Amino acid sequence: MRIVLVGPPGAGKGTQATRLAETLHIPHISTGDLFRANISQQTELGKLAKSYMDAGNLVPDEVTIAMAKDRMEQPDAEGGFLLDGFPRNVSQAEALDELIETENMKLDAVLDLEAPEDEVVKRIAGRRVCRNDSSHVFHVTYTPPKQEGVCDVCGGELYQRDDDSEETVRKRLEVYHTQTEPIIDYYKAQGLVVTIAATGPVNEVTGRALEALKRDQ
Ligand code: AP5
Ligand code: ZN
């Protein structure tokens, strides 16, 4: 399957993507995680991306599309993938369509995670991620790690993302409404959008997502 996950910052895209990718046996491709890995390895791409991410803005399309395309062309993504955080505006969606067409592939669904703004703000405020791998995600009250400040998965140190400050979160939400939300209409026109409520316990949201994807088949 080839799935795109969309939803505001803090909706739980990363949390759900990890679980869905495992169940559906497809790789989880998160452009946010790829940028954060580049930042921790201090690559040129990481240095460029950090300045945009810390301000809550989108990283320029040219580098983002090249990075996403490169990842989707890896052998493990041949049979399908779950995209998290990409595409994030209409020109990225058009670039993805182009790639899909060139490679004779098909997008199966765009899973839209809906969550109210006050809830996503609370989720982001309490989020802690792992220094070793930013796809290891916890929340201080909703999904706390067994030991405070320590990643359950790999034992790494948990920290608060630089772009999770109140001011940057406000900017990221604005960017989501103005630049990312239009891709929902873009994909609605292709009949691909499946919307689910992303509220309630993590496992319930996963169940809802799997049901919705099955119904959509
Ligand atoms: P990215 O990393 O993609 O961030 P985002 O879209 O803002 O989404 P988040 O990671 O904040 O939230 P999420 O929905 O994954 O929620 P999570 O599962 O962590 O992008 C960051 C930046 O990178 C962008 O601002 C941009 O600069 C750049 N970038 C990335 N892609 C780009 C692109 N394509 N083009 C240009 N620039 C790009 O959950 C949040 C918290 O809630 C966690 O603590 C979690 O434990 C908790 N939680 C999750 N689900 C539940 C639940 N059901 N109940 C209670 N708590 C929950
Ligand atoms: Zn970890």
From TrEMBL:
SUPFAM superfamilies: P-loop containing nucleoside triphosphate hydrolases. Monomer. PROSITE patterns: ADENYLATE_KINASE, GUANYLATE_KINASE_2. This is Adenylate kinase. It is found in: Cytoplasm. One of its GO terms (molecular function) is AMP kinase activity. The lineage of its organism: Bacteria, Bacillati, Actinomycetota, Actinomycetes, Kitasatosporales. ATP binds at G10, A11, G12, K13, G14, T15, R127, V137, F138, G200. Its EC number is 2.7.4.3. Catalyzes the reversible transfer of the terminal phosphate group between ATP and AMP. Plays an important role in cellular energy homeostasis and in adenine nucleotide metabolism. It comes from Streptomyces mutabilis. One of its GO terms (cellular component) is cytoplasm.
